[in-house]
Amino acid sequence: MDENQLKSSAKRKVFYITTPIYYVNDVPHIGHAYTTIIADAVSRHKKLAGLEVYFLTGTDEHGQKIEKAAAEKNLSPIELANQVVGRFKQLWQDLLIDYNFFIRTTADFHEKGVQAIFQQLKEKGDIYKGIYRGWYCVSCENFLTEDIPLDEDGLKTCPDCGKKATQVAEECYFFRLSAYQEKLLAFYQQNPHFVRPQSRMNEVVSFVRQGLKDLSITRTTVKWGIPVPNDPAHTIYVWFDALHNYLTGIGYGWNSSLFHKFWPADIHLIGKDILRFHAIFWPAFLMAAGLPLPKIVYSHGWWLKDETKMSKSKGNVLDPRIILEDFGPDPLRYFLLREVPIGLDGNFSHEGFLHRVNSDLANDLGNLVHRTLTMIQNYFQGKMEQPAPENESDRHLREAFNQTKTKAIAFYDELAINRALEEIWSYNNQVNKYLADN
Predict the structure, then answer these.
(1) Fewest CB atoms less than 10 Å from the CB: which of 23, 184, 286, 361?
(2) What digits encode the pLDDT tens for the residues 368-406?
(3) Which residues does 93 contact at the CB level (< 8 Å), separation at least 6?
(4) Nearest to 117 by CA among 300, 256, 286
C-alpha cells in the first residue's frame, strides 16, 4: 500500500480483507489454500496492530460449470454445493484459518442484494437488453474477446484454461462497460497502486486503453443462477453475481451499520487469472452503483507442480490435506508464505518443501528453542525469576530485535510476507550465534 492508503486504514481503525469466493465444482486444492493463508496471515497482522478486522471468504455456487459438475455426479447443484462447502470449511479449520464470515452465493440475502443492484443499474440505464453473439468458455464461465483468432478447426481456444470455447447467440442483458472506459483510466491515474504488483497494474491499464465493449451479464441457457428481476427467463451471469459477494458479505442489503463500517475493502486478494474481473469489471459496477471502490486489488501468482501448471487433466493437482496429514498446518503455512514473493509464480516440489521445513523450522528455529529451554532447565531449574543485568552483547541483541520488528511490520504492510519472514529468520540466526558466544 502507499502511505496515504496506510494512513486511511489506520484512521478508520478497521480493516476489510477478502479472498475470491471459490467454485464448488471440485474439492479445494493448494491454490485455494495459498490465497486463504495469505489473507489469514494479513488478518492476524492487522489484529496485532490494533485494527478491527473483517476477513471474508466463501464459495461461488451458481453457473453452468456447477450445473455440469453436479449432473456428472447425479446430484442437484445445491447438493453438490453443500458437499463441497463442507470440505472447504473443514480445510480452513485444519489450516487454522480464522475468517469472520463464510459467504455462499446461494444465500437468500446475497441473491436479493444482487437483484437489487441489477435493478438499480437497469433503471439507471447502465443495463439494457440485446443479442449477444460470440464465443463462450464453459470452464471459465467467461466470454472470449474478439481478438482471439480461430483455430484450424474453426473454433476458438480459451487463453486462460486452454479448452475449446462454444459459439453462442442468445438474448441477454448487457452492462454498458464502454461508458466507463475513460472513468476507469482516470481512476487508475489517480490511484496508481490500485492493482499490485505494478506489472499487473500495467496489464490492466493496457487492456482498458485498447477499448472496452459492453459486457453480457445474463444467460437464458443457464438455469442454475439468480433470476433477473421481472424477467426470470434470464439468469444473472455468474461473475456479476459473484463479485457482489464483497458487498453482501458485509451486510449490504441486510446490515447497514456493518456495511458502512467496513466498506470499502482494504484488500481484495486474488489469483492473477481473475484480475480482469476484479480490476476492470468490478470497479465499473461499483461506479455505476455509486459506491466507493476498494483500495487495493492484490494479484498473486500461481503454484506450479514440478514446474508445470496444475490441472485436473494432467492429474497433478496438489491436495493440501495430504500434507496436513503428515506435517500439520504450520509447516505448510510457513512454506507457502516464505518460499516466493506473493506476486510471482512458485514451484511446489516435495523435495523443496522438505528442505525448507527441515532447514528453517527443524534446524534453525527448532535448534534455538531446544537450546534455550535446555539452558533454562540446566542453569535455572526450569524457572527464570528475572533477567540478568544487560551487557554489551545483550544490548546489541535487543537493538537487533527492535530493528527486525520494524522491518517485518513494514514488509507485512506491503504484503512482502516472504521478506518479513527472511528478516525474522535472520534474527533467529543472530540469537543462535548469541547463545553460542555467550
Answers:
(1) 361
(2) 999 999 988 988 888 877 888 889 999 999 999 999 999
(3) none
(4) 286
Beta strands in 202-272 (DSSP E): 215-216, 218-219, 227-228, 231-236, 267-271
Query: Residue 306 and residue 318: Cα distance in Å, rounded?
Result: 11
**Domain covering 3-300, topology:** Rossmann fold (3.40.50)
Domain boundaries, the chain: 3-300, 349-437
For residues 263, 266, 268, 272, the Cα torsion angle rounded to the nearest 10 degrees is 150
- Determine the length of the chain: 438
Architecture of domain 349-437 in this structure? Orthogonal Bundle (1.10)
Backbone angles phi, psi at 292, to 5 degrees: -60, 150
Instruction: For 336-352, write each residue's pLDDT tens digit.
Output: 999 999 999 999 999 99
DSSP 357: I
Tell me the three cell numbers of residue 156: 476458438
Amino acid 254 reads: W
Q: Return the beta strands (E) in 157-288 as ranges.
A: 166-175, 195-196, 215-216, 218-219, 227-228, 231-236, 267-271
Q: Distance (Å, rounded) from C-alpha 250 to C-alpha 40?
A: 17
Please provide the average confidence, as pLDDT, over all residues in the chain: 93
Question: Residue 162: pLDDT band by 50, 70, 90 thresholds?
Answer: confident
